[in-house]
Specification:
By secondary structure, the protein is α+β, with helices and mostly antiparallel strands. 23% of the residues lie in helices and 43% in strands. It has a single domain, classed as Clam (outer membrane lipoprotein receptor (LolB), chain A), CATH 2.50.20.10. It has helices at residues 7-27, 34-45, 116-124, 130-136; strands at 51-61, 66-76, 79-85, 91-98, 101-106, 109-113, 147-151, 157-162, 165-175, 183-193, 196-207. Strands 6-5-4-3-2-1-11-10-9-8-7 form an eleven-stranded antiparallel β-sheet. A hairpin with a 2-residue loop joins strand 4 and strand 5. The radius of gyration is 22 Å and the shape is globular.
């Protein structure tokens, strides 16, 4: 039997290459396991308050039109209301979900239904994932939908891939919290899917109970 004289040399080289490959896979920040992503995000979401308000600007761009507005999003546990206002401060669109009640309002019309995304597409023609946007605005994927994540060097989520959408977080901002722990939350969010691009610029975060009230009455 012939002895391979290079075997003692190859073994440590193969071991070294294997370690380098494992290190490279770790530093990319991608989590291919959808179940692992959901577990991590559920734990992170528990550290955020149930009630919050954000103000900012939004643009929705597709092949047919470009739409720009200011917005205020009020979240109270599972209920929320989002108001979109034009350049003169008039409310162009308001959507809300309180318990099982869903409502969409424009200056001349009010619609109710069971699926907010369908109502938005019916009324505006937009593909607007507003239910998932609740989570994306906080920097996390929708826990009800499978996702893949990428992290930056600071172990913050930099990219979310979910339901055909690619969500990026180019900028974050430091937000004070009542617990005296400052949180680094999204300031700029870009979500793209095929020919649709949604961009949010958050100018103000308020964590905790809002002074605004809303209802379906």
């Amino acid at each position: 039997m012939r002895t391979n004289i290079f075997q003692p040399i190859f073994q440590p080289i193969v071991l070294l290459l294997t370690l380098l490959l494992l290190t490279a896979c770790t530093t990319t920040g991608t989590i291919p396991s959808e179940h692992a992503s959901s577990s991590i995000q559920q734990d992170a979401l528990h550290s955020l308050p149930e009630n919050w308000t954000i103000n900012g600007r939004i643009s929705v761009i597709n092949e047919q039109e470009n739409w720009y507005a200011k917005f205020t999003w009020i979240q109270k546990k599972q209920d929320f209301q989002v108001s979109f206002t034009g350049p003169l401060g008039e409310t162009e669109l308001q959507v809300s979900q309180i318990a099982e009640n869903i409502r969409l309002k424009t200056p001349g019309k009010e619609l109710t239904g069971h699926n907010l995304e369908q109502l938005l597409q019916q009324e505006t023609g937009w593909e607007f994932p507003i239910t998932s946007l609740r989570y994306w605005s906080q920097g996390y994927p929708n826990p009800e939908i499978a996702s893949q994540l990428k992290y930056n060097n600071d172990q913050q989520i930099s990219d979310i891939f979910q339901a055909g959408w690619h969500i990026r977080y180019p900028k974050r901002m430091l937000v004070e919290h009542l617990s005296a722990v400052n949180l680094l939350l999204p300031k700029k969010i870009i979500a793209t899917r095929q020919d649709v691009k949604i961009k949010l610029i958050i100018t103000r975060w308020h964590l905790g109970e809002s002074s605004f009230n809303f209802s379906l009455r």
